[in-house]
Amino acid sequence: MSLPSPSELLKRAEAFHGWSVDLRRRLHEIPETKFQEVKTSSLLWEELKKMGISSRRIAGTGLLCEFGPTRSTPVVALRADMDGLSLEEPAGPFASQHPGKMHACGHDVHMAVLLGAVRLLLDLGEDLPFRIRLLFQPGEEGGGGAKRMVEEGALEGVCRIFGLHVWMELDSGKASLRSGAAFASSDGFEAELLGRGGHGAEPFKTQDPTVPAGELLGAFQTLMSRERNPFEPAVLSVPTFQGGESYNVIPERVLLRGTLRTFSPDLRRRLLARMEELTSHYASAWRCQGLFRLFRPPYPVLVNPPGLAAQARDELSPLLEPLEAAPTLLAEDFAVYLEHCPGLFFLLGNRNPAQDILAPLHNPSFRVDESIISRGSALLAAASLLTHPQP
Ligand SMILES: [Zn+2]
Ligand SMILES: [Zn+2]
């Protein structure tokens, strides 16, 4: 029997749309932040059990499960992230029941999409040509969950991996992809300037760390304009500048905290090394001490291999836009999987002006056009059925 076409998969997913929406809403009500995804994980465990799939825990609150032919066939992995954000969701139907937590990055949709894909693939029964591994990953939002999953063996024996993200730059009813570098690398850095505080009236008796901190802020931006080739995209932002509390007390310490985004691992390494040098030199120029460090797990550049991207564009054409998606300076730790194994990360359009669904990700007003879930499920199921090159 031949395998269903992408359009046929979409038709089948639309037939159980109500089930998918219900799942998504139940997940939406119980958002949990990184590595706290306990209720989320139990809900998924139960749903998978109902489908006859047993799971095992991985990376703390994550789940790994497998189904499909037991004979030696390629193993294709499908990943959904599980965590919500520390944001207060406005009241409304099926809004978050966890005060101060919200699924504002669409990870509830990603999980519902993946369960829908499982249903489509299970329906193939004996015809399912590959073994399917499901990766429900905790801690995507700055937690480095993907790295932990990989370290605990999530990709062992896997030959391809697929995932997706809801996307506000793309209309609902569409899905897209960018071949090559698609999401930026992301580093969270801190530059700490340590001096000796004192009275604001007598700065000459202190080693004032606010002086090198102020200059360093400018020096970081000068680095971006003078030592970066303008054809190599990169962004550096320093949203946190913490010093003293008082108008007349010079602090002992100033902390700058920010993020660096690039599309080139070389450029990333070079800029980070120069930022460390600048921190140390600007501090010592003013008799202070400068410490530079990364304070969260770095996310690498997300690279969709062009060959596989072209194959997907060809074989999944009814579900996938023909045009390249624009690159983004946002980051995704799906990039970590792609460093170990070929695969693709799709964008699932969620922008719907007619329903006033326009608010960006990570915003309390973020909303989901639930009609997109079936398309996501069909896309992941179809991607897992992409033909493999003959060995
Ligand atoms: Zn996010
Ligand atoms: Zn996200």
Topology diagram in text:
Blueprint: H1 6-15, H2 17-28, H3 38-50, E1 55-58, E2 62-67, E3 75-81, H4 107-122, E4 131-137, H5 145-151, E5 158-171, E6 175-176, E7 180-183, E8 185-194, E9 198-199, H6 210-226, E10 234-242, E11 249-250, E12 253-262, H7 265-285, E13 289-294, E14 302-304, H8 306-315, H9 334-340, E15 343-351, H10 372-384
Parallel strand pairs: 3-4, 3-5, 5-15
Antiparallel strand pairs: 1-2, 2-4, 6-15, 7-14, 8-12, 8-13, 9-11, 10-12
Helix pairs in contact: 1-10, 2-4, 4-10, 6-7
The protein binds zinc ion (2 copies).
Care to describe what's here?
With 391 residues, the chain is of the alpha+beta class. It folds into two domains: 6-182 and 301-384, Aminopeptidase (3-Layer(aba) Sandwich), CATH 3.40.630; 185-294, Alpha-Beta Plaits, CATH 3.30.70. Helix content is 32%, strand content 24%. It has helices at 6-15, 17-28, 38-50, 107-122, 145-151, 210-226, 265-285, 306-315, 334-340, 372-384; strands spanning 55-58, 62-67, 75-81, 131-137, 158-171, 175-176, 180-183, 185-194, 198-199, 234-242, 249-250, 253-262, 289-294, 302-304, 343-351. It has a seven-stranded mixed sheet with strand order 1-2-4-3-5-15-6, with helices on both faces. Strands 10-12-8-13 form a four-stranded antiparallel sheet, covered by helices on one side. Strands 7-14 form a two-stranded antiparallel ribbon. A hairpin with a 3-residue loop joins strand 1 and strand 2. The chain is elongated. The protein starts with 5 loop residues before the first helix and ends in a 7-residue tail after the last helix. The structure holds zinc ion (2 copies). One zinc ion is lined by residues 105, 141, 361-362.
